[in-house]
Amino acid sequence: MEEPGSIRPGGRTARVRAAVLRAAGDALAEHGFARLDLTDVARRAEVGKTTVYRRWGTVTGLVADLLTDMAEQSLPRARTGSLEGDLRANARLVRRTLTDPRQGALFHAIIAAAACDARTAAALHRFYDTRIREWAPCVEEAIDRGELPKGTDAHEVVRAVSAPLYYRMLASGDPLDEASADRAAKAAVLAARAGAYVKAG
């Protein structure tokens, strides 16, 4: 079953969707999930509230569509010709996103909501699955070039790049600078070359 608002529309419907999702992102970044209100989103987007309620139905339905849109709009993966170059580009993209005043606040709000709302958690998991699948081929290409052992789990390598960056944002509060992004990428490359992510069996 499709999540509310998840059908890709065209024309005026596309413009309404874009306006509503932009308004929802602004409201989330400003006030968090707990204060997200469909009527307020409709007001911000300058559309009728019945339109918002009819298309998205619930706050979680709206957040799910927002995450779908964010995944679709994210930059495509880098192609630098080397695994470390590709993963460094990935780490720097994650770092820029998490430190952006709007995007960082938006992710904080969504991650907090996902901790206590199953539908938001499912939408967040789909978002990250989309992004990991976008970047996994850079690891698969490195395996084909002989840079990594056969059987390396490409998805685990990509996850290993971003995990330390999210830890800094959500748990430790340590600086989330470019050096930490580059270090996360290098650590993932070294571990992958050592066989740490080869699938068991």
From TrEMBL:
SUPFAM superfamilies: Homeodomain-like (SSF46689), Tetracyclin repressor-like, C-terminal domain (SSF48498). InterPro entries: Homeodomain-like_sf (IPR009057), HTH-type_TetR-like_transc_reg (IPR050109), HTH_TetR (IPR001647), Tet_transcr_reg_TetR-rel_C_sf (IPR036271), TetR_C (IPR011075). Keywords: DNA-binding, Transcription, Transcription regulation. Residues 37-56 bind DNA. It holds the Pfam family TetR_C_11. Residues 14-74 form the HTH tetR-type domain. It comes from the Bacteria. This is TetR/AcrR family transcriptional regulator.
